[in-house]
Amino acid sequence: MRLTLDGTPIDYQERGDGPPLLLLPGGAGHADIFDGLAAHLADHYRVAAMSSRLVSARQNGDQHPRVYAEDALGLIDALFDEPPAVFGFSAGAITTLDLLARHPERVRLAVVHEPPVAWTKRRG
Q1: Is pLDDT above 90 for 120?
Q2: Residue 81 CB: number of other CB atoms within 10 A?
Q3: For residue 93, which of 1, 62, 76, 115 is within the disulfide window of CB 3.0 to 4.6 Å?
């Protein structure tokens, strides 16, 4: 399936019935990566798996968490009547954290798996 947000196509897959659950892949990931997981979860959840805009729109460029978080928010607005649980891994985890930081009322629960974030100690 495809949703167009501000002129940019965003591909996603949806299945199941129940409380909403949004799955966000890492990097330039495609929703297909969640096929096995979504098949198991669809018995209990309405699962939407979102592809990266780099895949959907065949764009090149940097990944900006704020842009992807807005894509995720657009998908949430289009598909769900209530805030979903959101699961993201790798860069999808960073997207989930950005979405949660800027729109906490739009996320029921956030699960972030292995966000590639580094902490550096300042010297001084």
Answers
A1: no
A2: 6
A3: 115
What is the spatial distance between Cα 109 and Cα 70, in angstroms, rounded to a whole number? 17
Expressed in angstroms, the distance from the first to the final Cα of the chain is 52
46-75 pLDDT, tens digit each: 999 999 887 766 666 666 889 999 999 999
Domain spans of the chain, in order of start: 2-113
Residue 70 and residue 101 in contact, taking contact as beta carbons nearer than 8 Å: no
The alpha carbon torsion through 17, 23, 58, 3 (nearest 10 deg) reads 40
Average pLDDT across the chain, whole number: 91
For 2-113, CATH number? 3.40.50.1820
DSSP of the chain: -EEEETTEEEEEEEE--SSEEEEE-STT--GGGGHHHHHHHTTTSEEEEEPPHHHHTT--S---HHHHHHHHHHHHHHH-SSPPEEEEETHHHHHHHHHHHH-GGG-SEEEEE-------PPP-
